Amino acid sequence: MAARPVRKPRRWGRRLGIAAGVLLALVLVAWFAFTSPAPLFSQPPAPTAAEVGAGRAAYWQLRDSRGRAGKVVSFTPAHLAGLGAVASDGFAPDRLRVRTRGRSIVAEASHQLPLGRWLNVTATAEAPSKTFPDTRIKVGAVSFPPWLSRAGIEVVRLLLLARGTDVPPLEWAVRDFAIKEGTVSARLQLPGKMGLVDQLAGVVSTGDVNEADVVRTYCALADSQRKRKSEDFAEQVRRAFAVDPGGDAAAANKASFIALAMLLVDERAGDFAGEARAASKDCRVPAPAASLHGRQDSAKHWAVSAALAVGAGVQLSEAVGEWKELADSLEARSEFAAGDPTGFSMSDVAADRAGFLTATAAARRGQAAPMRRALARVTAEELLPGALLAEKDGMRNAEFVQRYGGIDDPRYKARVREIDAVLERSPLR
Questions:
Q1: What's the distance, CA 378 to chain centroid?
Q2: In a domain, 43, yes or no
Q3: Which of 141, 169, 192 is at the close of a domain?
Q4: Among 108, 144, 171, 197, whose Cα sits 20 to 30 Å from the Cα of 228?
């Protein structure tokens, strides 16, 4: 009887195992090389009125350079600190710090990752430079030379181009870059889409607001307004939630809040829902001057905060409302005051909180359907209890600081909890 041939063990399984092990090792090496166990710096305190004003002034300079070739911007250390303070507050626990160091500007950013790790990125740009400056980028423990850093920035530019953002070549985006006595100046050419709502929508949108629902609701609101004009905010809310959702109530509620802000405050709120702004242009109507308890500012605060809550999240919605009030508290003579500041208004804070608390509740699946029915017949008192309009208005920064310390002070937080307690007694919540 012939002997059976001995089969040699197959080697592909062993090779596959080795390859998988090598790949896993590379992934682990990259994970620990490019991430860190702690952020670059501790979480900054909540911004002061001066920091909010400085951050807003810096933003306005950037906004004014959109779509314009050769617009010169100039950022003092206060501007840079304000940008970092506002960003760190709005996106906590992530954080940003921008400052000058000798002839360089240094931007440090930390983003929280799973498993207790942090993505730490430091970008250092050297001055002076006639065109886009030499920039070194460090990610985690890995530093990239200027040529490789520039290549990475160029890749980001190309990705933005692919998404439809008209970003100019780097040589034209930044020119005449200089740093003198801590002040940064440059000639910028930025994309035309630089509005606040544009940027919030493009960068921090939750991405789960249905464009078609927003367009349908906005056009229904516009049609109702053409048929019978109304400046009653509560009626506009009832109209927004009377539209047949045609499906999931939570999704329809989110769309209604976005459409309401588009109609009453700014059509760019539609950017939280893809191309809703462009898709609804044929049914556009002028924004009615809607008021809540006779106050147009309360209606706008309520609508914007609700839209931000469903479009970008509650944390940013709360922060934006507080930033606005802090900026309003600046003295008119402050270098960062805009126009004639109206002062810090706890009534406006109450309207902000009423908007985003209502929107948050209406977006929860278990509450969405009954909230939609309630909002379709809501009254002004249910939207914002009139007693909260007696909250202190017109506080200059000195008075606000004396009374409340700041927006992270226990005294301020205690007053906000009292406002929330009143709001929680509303039938809506």
A1: 29
A2: no
A3: 192
A4: 197
Whether residue 225 sits in one domain with residue 149: no
| E-assigned strand segments in 324-367 | none
What angle do helix axes 410-424 and 346-363 make, rounded to 10 degrees? Answer: 60
Does residue 308 sit within a domain?
A: yes
* Backbone torsions φ then ψ of 99, nearest 5 degrees: -155, 165
Same domain, yes or no, for 258 and 275?
yes
Work out the pLDDT band at 128, boundaries 50, 70, 90. very high
What is the residue type of 109?
A
Cα–Cα distances (Å) from 366 to 99, 247, 362, in that order, read 46, 15, 9
CA distance 119 to 256: 36
CB 202 within 8 A of CB 152: no
256 plus 143 within the same structural domain: no
- Let me know whether 219 and 250 are in one domain: yes
Instruction: Give 182's DSSP letter.
Output: T
Instruction: Flag whether 130 is in a domain.
Output: yes
Q: What are phi and psi of 139, to 5 degrees?
A: -120, 115
pTM of the model: 0.76
Query: Which of 192, 209, 237 marks a domain boundary?
Result: 192
Q: Domain range spanning residue 74? A: 49-192
Place of tokens 């439809």: 164
CA 81 to chain centre: 18
Q: Are residues 275 and 393 in the same domain?
A: yes
Whether residue 388 contacts residue 422, with contact meaning beta carbons closer than 8 Å, is answered with: yes
User: CB of 384 within 8 A of CB of 298?
Assistant: yes
- The values of phi and psi at residue 110, to 5°, are -130, 130
Q: What is the pLDDT of residue 60?
A: 82
- The answer on 210 and 237 residing in a single domain is yes
What is the signed CA dihedral for 163, 165, 171, 172, rounded to 10 degrees?
170
So what's the pLDDT on residue 64? Answer: 75
The one-letter amino acid code at 294 reads G
pLDDT, mean of residues 196-221: 68
Q: Are 305 and 258 in contact (CB under 8 A)?
A: no
Straight-line distance from the first to the last Cα atom of the chain, in angstroms, rounded to the nearest whole number: 88
pLDDT above 90: residue 15: no
Residue 97 belongs to some domain of the structure: yes
Q: One-letter amino acid identity for 4?
A: R
